[in-house]
Amino acid sequence: MRRGDLAELAGSCGLGAWTAFGVLTLVVVGHEGVPLFADADILSWSVAHRPDVAVAFARGVTATGTGVVPYALAVLAGAVAGRTPRQRGVSVALCLFCLAAGQVLRYTVMALVARPRPPLADWATHASGWAFPSGHTTTSALAAGLLIVAVCLRAPRGRTALALTVGCWGVLVGLSRVYLGVHWFTDVAGGWLFALGWLGLCLGAASRWLPERWTPGTAEPREPTGPAGPAGPAGPAGPAGASEG
Questions:
Q1: What tens digit of pLDDT does each residue of 27-58 get?
Q2: Is the torsion defined by CA of 173, 33, 31, 184 positive or negative?
Q3: What is 67-134 written as a DSSP string?
Q4: Nearest 10 degrees: CA dihedral of 118, 195, 31, 181?
Q5: Predicted TM-score (pTM) of this structure
Q6: Collapsing DSSP states into helix, strand and coil, what is residue 58?
Q7: Cα 245 to the chain's mean position, in Å?
Q8: What span, in angstroms and rounded, lies between the C-alpha atoms of 186 and 178?
């Protein structure tokens, strides 16, 4: 994927996601945090379908959406994206910044919206803080997005299967929050949109303003080894530069 293509794609996706997130946020605020659309029906279904093995699996998945795992994936994304040691260092720092700054912004939005969580009686795991947008969902989606972009930049064999696997993990973390009863589905949808919008903003800024030699996924220009370039001065005229007689 070329630098210009990445900037254009990131800008388009980011703008669309921010627009959708803004609309959803206004709807949540306008309805004073009450369940929206199919929120109540999805939660009711989740509460009614909780065999022990499914709850244990959901708790295991949801635990990976916060703490060390997302930041480890962000570091991995930076390491994969860079082609040289300098690029790897820059890209790891950028990935960690994107994830950490996204957390700060998400906390700010949560405090401003102040949407209550579903009833405590429906919870099947511990949770704290306000509901919108879902923190686990946002964090895992950002980490998954960073790794998917890194894989697409380097384009290794099997990238499609790897990107799908990482993407499914990000989706499952969000769905586990609804299944365990600590978030409405629109909290999770808001987390996905927020993550996509923030990721698009970070990628767009990096691809436009980061120096070419530091941009992850690009080849660093080689220094010339002679007056006429890497091959040195041109030889005498003749076939293939060979001298006569």
A1: 999 999 899 989 999 999 999 999 999 999 99
A2: positive
A3: THHHHHHHHHHHHHH-SSHHHHHHHHHHHHHHHHHHHHHHHHHHHHH-PPPSPGGG-SS---S--SS-
A4: -10
A5: 0.82
A6: helix
A7: 65
A8: 9
